[in-house]
Amino acid sequence: MTVVTVHHAKTHLSKLIAAAERGEEVVIARGDKPAVRIVPFEPAAKPDRKPGRLKGVVAMDARFFDPLPEDELRLWEGRGE
User: Fold this and answer.
1) Distance (Å, rounded) from C-alpha 8 to C-alpha 16?
2) b/e map of 12-32 (b: 16 or more CB within 10 Å)?
3) Alpha helix locations (H) across 1-81?
4) Do β-strands 2-5 and 26-30 pair in parallel, antiparallel, or remain unpaired?
């Protein structure tokens, strides 16, 4: 484990990032108290998306495309009540 001060981290950030990417544990401390740990970024898994999954569950009829009533349109546009 590598423990460094904030000042050292600011001047050697690229090296510390490379160490974390290699799997080393890097901790940045304020004085003698550990504050944060640098870890490699792991992208989130993509959701399992399948077209048509909600077919029959969600329905829209032709009224979906009708203009909104004036009072509701004002609210959506932030023009007050």
Assistant:
1) 10
2) eeeebeebbeeeeebebeeee
3) 6-11, 13-21, 70-76
4) parallel
Write the CA distances from 34 to 1, 3, 4, 10, 23, integer angstroms. Answer: 12, 8, 9, 15, 19
What digits encode the pLDDT tens for the residues 27-36? 999 999 999 9
Amino acid at 17: I
Beta bridge partners of 4: 28
Mean pLDDT value of segment 19-40: 95
Mean of the pLDDT values across residues 6-25? 96
What is the pTM assigned to this prediction?
Answer: 0.55
State the Cα–Cα distance between residues 47 and 76, nearest whole angstrom.
Answer: 30
Q: Are 38 and 13 in contact (CB under 8 A)?
A: no
Cα-to-chain-centroid distance, residue 3 = 27
